[in-house]
Description:
Layout: E1 10-15, H1 19-24, E2 32-36, H2 46-56, E3 64-68, H3 77-85, E4 91-94, H4 100-112, E5 120-125, H5 128-132, H6 134-138, E6 144-149, H7 151-158, H8 170-182, E7 186-189, H9 198-211, E8 215-218, H10 224-231, H11 235-253, E9 259-261, E10 264-266, H12 268-292
Parallel strand pairs: 1-2, 1-8, 2-3, 3-4, 4-5, 5-6, 6-7, 7-8
Antiparallel strand pairs: 9-10
Bound molecules: ligand LIB3CWND and magnesium ion.
Amino acid sequence: xxxxxxxxxxxxxxxxxxxxxxxxxxxxxxxxxxxxxxxxxxxxxxxxxxxxxxxxxxxxxxxxxxxxxxxxxxxxxxxxxxxxxxxxxxxxxxxxxxxxxxxxxxxxxxxxxxxxxxxxxxxxxxxxxxxxxxxxxxxxxxxxxxxxxxxxxxxxxxxxxxxxxxxxxxxxxxxxxxxxxxxxxxxxxxxxxxxxxxxxxxxxxxxxxxxxxxxxxxxxxxxxxxxxxxxxxxxxxxxxxxxxxxxxxxxxxxxxxxxxxxxxxxxxxxxxxxxxxxxxxxxxxxxxxxxxxx
Length: 294
Ligand SMILES: CC(C)(COP(=O)(O)OP(=O)(O)OC[C@H]1O[C@@H](n2cnc3c(N)ncnc32)[C@H](O)[C@@H]1OP(=O)(O)O)[C@@H](O)C(=O)NCCC(=O)NCCSC(=O)C[C@H](O)C(=O)O
Ligand SMILES: [Mg+2]
């Protein structure tokens, strides 16, 4: 599956200490999973959680699996990265990244521990310094795979409020999406903490898609379907994409670079977006078929 078309509509966190959640995730329709060793795991459970996630990481079929390690400055971070290198995870997610150097330290540990070339580094952007340095972070390593917004930590450090429209985060969201797109990285929106607020959850997904995120990070399985619906292309969007791809190809055959379809001007740039959308829809079908056979 091409990295660019990899579905990331819904990416579910689960504590590495929760064996039932790690098992349950095998049957859940999330596009990706974050097996957490950091904030969701109590200090006394960190070592056991590490062996749980390393054992589980290869058991989720084609879904993308990230292991969120503890920071390197903690007593567990270094050993988490070393253990993750030997797992079948697709990537290592570093919390609270604030500089390119923090990425390079993890990159060096991965190289020293023979992590496969395909194993990516993902960064949580969740502090003011992380946001301010996001472009440096984006180009820190060829192993970079993407960013995850950590809006809970960011709100704490910014001393801002979690509001319905999320206006306090908009500048950070825009900067991080720009950096991700400029350097060909994926980017996921932060979590919605109020599990009783279905309407607010859907609104934040709609906003996240409008802002350019690939998908949303989640804390509970009951939110997976709504995230998949909000971030996935609709049948109508796929049909429109196929129509304009065909119409533009026909126009090119006639030596034209533009065409009008249903009153709308279609140029090559629209075809590029349409092709991405069709590729994503196809990748979703492949992933859903894989889940159905799990
Ligand atoms: C929030 C929870 C603690 C709730 O757990 P629970 O009380 O067990 O929920 P339910 O009884 O409603 O669960 C129903 C079934 O679903 C399974 N389940 C629940 N949550 C998950 C999950 N995350 N992954 C997989 N499976 C899950 C239960 O086992 C039940 O199944 P069954 O046994 O068949 O009945 C819990 O949802 C939870 O722990 N969520 C994840 C919390 C977490 O990981 N937090 C850290 C990441 S968020 C973060 O750090 C943000 C970021 O860093 C920032 O700064 O913004
Ligand atoms: Mg956090």
